[in-house]
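Supplementary Text 2. Reproducibility record for the structural model of the 567-residue chain.

All settings were left at their defaults, and a single model was retained for analysis rather than an ensemble. We include the record here because the model underlies the residue-level annotations in Supplementary Table 4.
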Amino acid sequence: MNGSNPYVSVNIEGVDHRNVRTGTTLQQLTQELWPDTWRGIVAAYVDNELKELTYSVTEDCSIVFFGLEAKDGHRIYQRSATFLLIRAAREILPGCRVTIEHSLSNGLYGEIHHTRALMEQDLRDIEGRMKEIVERDEPFEKMVMEKEAARALFLEDNQLDKVNLLKYRESDFVNIYRSGWFHDYFYGYMTPSAGYLQQIKLRYYLPGFILQIPDSNNPDVIPTYREQPKLASVHREAERWGDILQVGTVSALNDMIVAGHGGDLVRIAEALHEKKIAQIADSIFQRRDTLRVVLIAGPSSSGKTTFAQRLSIHMRVNGLHPVAIHLDDYFLDRDKTPRNEQGEYDFESIEAIDLDLFNTHLSQLIQGQEVEMPTFDFTSGSRQYTGKRLQVAEDQPIIIEGIHGLNHRLTESIPSGNKFKIYISALTQLNIDDHNRIPTTDVRLIRRMVRDHQFRSNPPENTLRRWAAVRQGERVNIFPFQEEADVMFNSALAYELAVLKGHAEPLLKTVNRWDPGYAEAKRLLKFLSYFLPLEEEDVPATSILREFIGGSCFHETEPELVEAICR
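Retained model, structure tokens:
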């Protein structure tokens, strides 16, 4: 502001440049600009910084408003709905404890712990109370408190998870949100009031509930819930692993590190992985008379490569001699590769693979025929034959690792009884506290960022910029088929974010203030600040984590599995 001029100049995306009175809040701006639809806007980027709608404009700036269609908008809406849910549950079931566990299908799974079992009518009453608060548009007030005062507040309310979490907070101050009588802490922003949450739904899901809100593609409608029993089962397994490790929250992990038990935690977490991989290998062995193809699929940075190597070792222990085939070698020539909506080559599409040739070769191989194997030359963009030949015996299952492994079209010519399908993803069992969950996508994004820098000389801003496209590819090519898996493997490690912290934080701090990924980098830095660092010396060379931080005894591709019998 110049001199005594009471106005500032703002450039609002999609709106003409204008002057507004200094101190005007973003919420007031939305109400002025969009009088009929302002509740569809939940936050804004001000000069590329994420801001709540209660933020006051005090200097010249550029503003981009957004709603649920943006990933930050969806997070804010979901976080606000969670805040509302917890308050309503505490009012309907006094003394209860609400825990937000993990995402499930297109909802958020949680549990309500009370003196009796949760009943469906309880949820109807809680949902009704939530809608009453929404109808009254009660405010969500943000308060800045001294850390020790906040800990005393939560101790009095018996929110011991937050008392423990805040003891590791570096800052002397903390932001607390209040709705009516209820106070809570969240590590991200909120809507200004409950009235923004016009679309919320609770579903009874024994022994807890599913909280549903609209998705980013259709902000006005709550999508139909899709049952995913296998994914729910692997989440329950993750909870059991958390109980075994005695690490369910970040503060519990930090306590272990402070007590000097980090090494023990690493060894037990790795042993759980080893035991599960051995069980999967045993399941494959039990079907050895008919099973000829093992398919491994999962989203980006799930650890598919290391998992495939470790599974191969356990299969060898059982007397099998697996052979790996690489899907990349079956890419169509570049001039036949499909393109996406942006006109770029879409290598993630299943149409980029020569499905006819791949199925022909698979059929020939499992019938004992010798096949000349192709090699795809990425420089020329064409498939070539160099005389490499392959023939497999009955004790040599073919391992195929790739994003389309669970899609029936990839191996359409192979009978179901000859295939074993594995879905792998990092489904973390760790939460920040009872009400702040750790999204599995954040774990995978941090893994990928560290790996991209370590092995591909790719700066963090490139990883952040491409992540939305990666996620869209997963939604199209992987997630619709995950329930087709015979078994699911959870590649998350309870300790990994404490190790990744030392690798990721320096990278995130290099993201430029005006880079498109800056807001995301800042969010991830705040997220990692909750973790105490853990040295990586106890992480074994066989660990899935080594695929990202380095020091793995496996290579990203292991050609000797094929070369041993290629001639």
